[in-house]
Amino acid sequence: MSYSNVIDYGNFPECLSIDYEDQDGRIIGKFCGLSVIFVNIFLTPETKEILTSFNLDVNEPSVQTVPQQFNATISMDTFLKMDKQLRDVLIEDVPYVLSKYSMCVPNACTPREVSYFFLYGHLDQFSLIIFTDLPCETKESNTDFEWGDIVFIIFLVLIVLAMILSTIYDALCQNFKTEPYHPLLLSFSILYNGKKLLHISNNTTEQIQCFNGMRFISMMWVVAFHAVSVFQVGAVGLENYPEVVEWDSSWTSRYILSGLLAVDTFFFISGFLLAFSYLKTATKQGPVDQILKVPKMYLHRYLRLTPPVAAMYLVTITIFRFLGSGPTWTLISDLFKTTCKKQWWKFFLYIQNYTDPDNMCVNPMWYLSADMQMFILAPLVLIPTAMFIKKRFLHVIGGLIGLTVLCIICPMLIRYFVDEAAGNIYTSHERFTNFVIGITFGAFMRMKKEKPFIFS
């Protein structure tokens, strides 16, 4: 513990494998996790002081006072708000440290009994301990199906059945060299859709080949960042935590820890492709025709994005908890499920990155929310651009550059005057600069394609 190795979940599979039965009854292993805050007895801070340091209200229902050493018992939803600095025991004058342990007990024990046994039996010499209960789990946990799970599983079975029947029909049509009765009958065919997915089109002037490399590099960057962030937030134990802290502050870590910027690549590409494709036909249309086309653009965008997003949502609130196992899996899956059920309407309106960024359903979906919001604002830029770019090209490009500068200044002013957290990376106005830069380059490349520039 003195080396910041404060996480020990024990042997999760071994605990769950315990299953003993005799004439007195049956005992199966129950794995219970514990998150314990050890308080420095030399600093002896007050409970209210600790809770206040994390912006927690000691009078809220989730914080309960209990007798003797235990000044507070904090529920998991409140506990998750706490700062990760609890883990670092090497910081001077820090009055507490967060440790995570586990106990393997008979299945008859309740989480509350486990907590009190742990505290009274081993840690009664400490002046103050704040603890929170984590879900306990046995091998029979997560075996009960709710009605929502059953309905979604039936839906998946029907989809698989449709794929099988459609593929068989497609194979028969190809074998007998006959045309399908209706194209819809091939909609779920693996053969038909597989050919379309695996088809590589010839290089055309409408394709920007370098974007494929940009996407790949950025995706690997995002994966690397998230792989490292799992260790930084204290989700898993580390034997060399001090070395990790030292590495975090070194220049060699910048290429991974700056992974928050990797998403900007996709906003740039999104803005570029939108402008590049929009200006292909919009420059030949009047402003009224363009404005009348906007609702259709919005509807097409929503209908194209929402089906896979809805599938992800349904998986999260139904069968997601059956897809994994581990010391904290039940906690994570239940948290996802509860949050998504509560935030469903914000999720499908693509506004949760603004309404409640700290409690989003499927956190990575913030990108789609921001991208949708930028798409909705895009006609305000694209329509004037399409109207004047052919006649006043330099003026339009200059205006787009000015808009880019404005998009840089506005978030800075908002942070300064509104006191918005600088770390709020989910809002569209924080990322809109990259989208506008993409629009600028997209407009430039479209005009360059139609009328190549000659530099003398």
TrEMBL record:
<feature type="transmembrane region" description="Helical">
    <location>
        <begin position="396"/>
        <end position="418"/>
    </location>
</feature>
<dbReference type="InterPro" id="IPR002656">
    <property type="entry name" value="Acyl_transf_3_dom"/>
</dbReference>
<dbReference type="InterPro" id="IPR006621">
    <property type="entry name" value="Nose-resist-to-fluoxetine_N"/>
</dbReference>
<dbReference type="Pfam" id="PF01757">
    <property type="entry name" value="Acyl_transf_3"/>
</dbReference>
<feature type="transmembrane region" description="Helical">
    <location>
        <begin position="255"/>
        <end position="281"/>
    </location>
</feature>
<feature type="domain" description="Acyltransferase 3">
    <location>
        <begin position="210"/>
        <end position="450"/>
    </location>
</feature>
<keyword id="KW-0472">Membrane</keyword>
<protein>
    <submittedName>
        <fullName>Nose resistant to fluoxetine protein 6-like</fullName>
    </submittedName>
</protein>
<keyword id="KW-1133">Transmembrane helix</keyword>
<dbReference type="Pfam" id="PF20146">
    <property type="entry name" value="NRF"/>
</dbReference>
<feature type="transmembrane region" description="Helical">
    <location>
        <begin position="372"/>
        <end position="389"/>
    </location>
</feature>
<feature type="transmembrane region" description="Helical">
    <location>
        <begin position="302"/>
        <end position="323"/>
    </location>
</feature>
<dbReference type="GO" id="GO:0016747">
    <property type="term" value="F:acyltransferase activity, transferring groups other than amino-acyl groups"/>
</dbReference>
<feature type="transmembrane region" description="Helical">
    <location>
        <begin position="150"/>
        <end position="172"/>
    </location>
</feature>
<feature type="domain" description="Nose resistant-to-fluoxetine protein N-terminal">
    <location>
        <begin position="3"/>
        <end position="117"/>
    </location>
</feature>
<keyword id="KW-0812">Transmembrane</keyword>
<feature type="transmembrane region" description="Helical">
    <location>
        <begin position="216"/>
        <end position="235"/>
    </location>
</feature>
<dbReference type="InterPro" id="IPR052728">
    <property type="entry name" value="O2_lipid_transport_reg"/>
</dbReference>
